């Protein structure tokens, strides 16, 4: 049974959640004229009869209620409040309504002594995060707090009622911020570096961090049938990703180096590099793949070796060894920490340079193929057609005399 009428009835919007008194007075003065027939079809079932002046939870289509999990009692339902929500087409902003009953009221099973009722009416066309259900969950989190319900019961007017809700919401938000700050401090203390720096500190920490998981990196892929299936599918996927790229860039290297580095050597280098890095790299989600910048770099090395009359493989091997030496120095002195100051614009400029270079190379290759495959035949056909046209011109009859031409002209004109 509904029992006594609600003592207070509040109608607020989602945006008005500040504490100043003028704002709360503005909230209280808002009136949204929504007829009962509009929301009754959304909230109540067909069996509900308003004339009987009674309401049971079985008459509600959907309602929200808090539960608490206790290890001794099991699932305990919060019977002090419940929330109703629905969505309507002709409203453009959510409406949140609170009702405080004068005495505990029985609304059926699991709602024996209700003191608060929440009604949320939201627009029908709204984002999922701002829907009536999500707003109801937000306010339901507040009503599930016993301290807030006690303050709402002791509120004497609308100002105190709304102030208590807003203040509790801010307190919860501040508590979450404090917890996030404490969590960040804990993570910083866990990852804090020793004040004494020494050469190779980053490498030693990487080994200590990855060594306990090194064995599982290989065994997790064959732990069960499901893991083995994922491993096989990933291997097949990487095969069809890596191989076409290696073939395409291998053909480009073959042309740039005059067959010194061909497709076979690129695939072999891809296989050796990927296998060694997979065993000793410790980064399973990083795919080793040849890239266009390497092909451009190989072309530059080939031009340098050709202009200086040095052996291409000697220069290429020397540059590779020096790169390994520099990478070892970078790892020992933790030079990778400088990359945190790199902006996204640097990567975009580098990508733009590579894209322009490859586009120019593609146009050059197209022109070479056109000159090699099509232009000789086109020039031969042009010469043959020109000679045939000249021969036809030579065999043409001489033009008629001027007076005969006039006669022919008049005759054709008469016809």
From TrEMBL:
Membrane topology of this protein: Multi-pass membrane protein
Broad class of where this protein is predominantly found: membrane
Keyword annotations: Cell membrane, Ion transport, Membrane, Transmembrane, Transmembrane helix, Transport
Top-level division of the source organism's lineage: Eukaryota
Subcellular location: Cell membrane
Annotated ranges, domain Bicarbonate transporter-like transmembrane: 201-375
Record InterPro entries: HCO3_transpt-like_TM_dom, HCO3_transpt_euk, PTrfase/Anion_transptr
An example Gene Ontology biological process: monoatomic ion homeostasis
A GO CC term assigned to this protein in UniProt: basolateral plasma membrane
Residue ranges crossing the lipid bilayer per the database entry: 232-251, 271-291, 312-333
Membrane among keywords: yes
UniProt GO molecular function: solute:inorganic anion antiporter activity
Family: Belongs to the anion exchanger (TC 2.A.31) family.
Protein name: Bicarbonate transporter-like transmembrane domain-containing protein
Naturally occurring in which organism (per UniProt): Meloidogyne enterolobii (Root-knot nematode worm)
Organism placement in taxonomy: Eukaryota, Metazoa, Ecdysozoa, Nematoda, Chromadorea
């Amino acid at each position: 049974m509904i029992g006594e009428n609600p003592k207070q009835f509040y109608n607020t919007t989602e945006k008005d959640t500040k504490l100043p008194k003028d704002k709360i007075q503005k909230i209280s003065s808002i009136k949204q004229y929504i007829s009962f027939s509009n929301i009754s079809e959304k909230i109540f079932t067909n069996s509900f009869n308003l004339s009987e002046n009674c309401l049971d939870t079985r008459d509600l289509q959907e309602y929200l209620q808090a539960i608490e999990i206790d290890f001794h009692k099991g699932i305990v339902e919060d019977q002090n409040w419940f929330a109703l929500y629905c969505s309507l087409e002709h409203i453009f902003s959510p409406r949140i309504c609170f009702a405080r009953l004068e005495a505990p009221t029985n609304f059926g099973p699991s709602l024996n002594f209700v003191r608060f009722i929440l009604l949320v009416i939201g627009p029908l066309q709204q984002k999922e995060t701002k829907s009536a259900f999500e707003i109801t969950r937000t306010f339901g989190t507040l009503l599930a707090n016993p301290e807030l319900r006690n303050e709402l019961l002791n509120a004497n007017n609308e100002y105190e009622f709304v102030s208590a809700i807003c203040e509790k919401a801010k307190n919860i938000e501040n508590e979450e911020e404090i917890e996030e700050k404490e969590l960040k401090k804990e993570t910083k203390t866990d990852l804090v570096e020793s004040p004494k720096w020494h050469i190779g500190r980053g490498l030693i920490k990487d080994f200590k961090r990855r060594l306990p998981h090194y064995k599982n990196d290989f065994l997790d892929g064959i732990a069960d049938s499901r893991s083995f299936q994922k491993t096989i599918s990933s291997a097949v996927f990487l095969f069809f990703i890596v191989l076409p790229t290696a073939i395409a860039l291998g053909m480009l290297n073959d042309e740039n180096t005059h067959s010194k580095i061909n497709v076979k050597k690129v695939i072999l280098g891809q296989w050796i590099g990927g296998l060694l890095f997979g065993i000793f790299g410790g980064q399973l989600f990083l795919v080793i793949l040849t890239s266009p910048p390497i092909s451009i770099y190989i072309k530059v090395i080939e031009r340098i070796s050709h202009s200086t009359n040095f052996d291409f493989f000697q220069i290429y091997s020397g540059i590779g060894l020096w790169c390994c030496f520099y990478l070892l120095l970078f790892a020992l002195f933790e030079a990778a920490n400088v990359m945190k100051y790199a902006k996204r614009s640097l990567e975009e400029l580098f990508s733009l340079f590579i894209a322009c270079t490859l586009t120019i190379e593609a146009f050059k290759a197209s022109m070479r193929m056109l000159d090699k495959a099509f232009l000789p035949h086109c020039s031969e056909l042009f010469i043959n057609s020109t000679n045939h046209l000249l021969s036809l011109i030579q065999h043409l009859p001489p033009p008629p005399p001027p007076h005969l031409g006039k006669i022919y002209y008049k005759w054709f004109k008469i016809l």
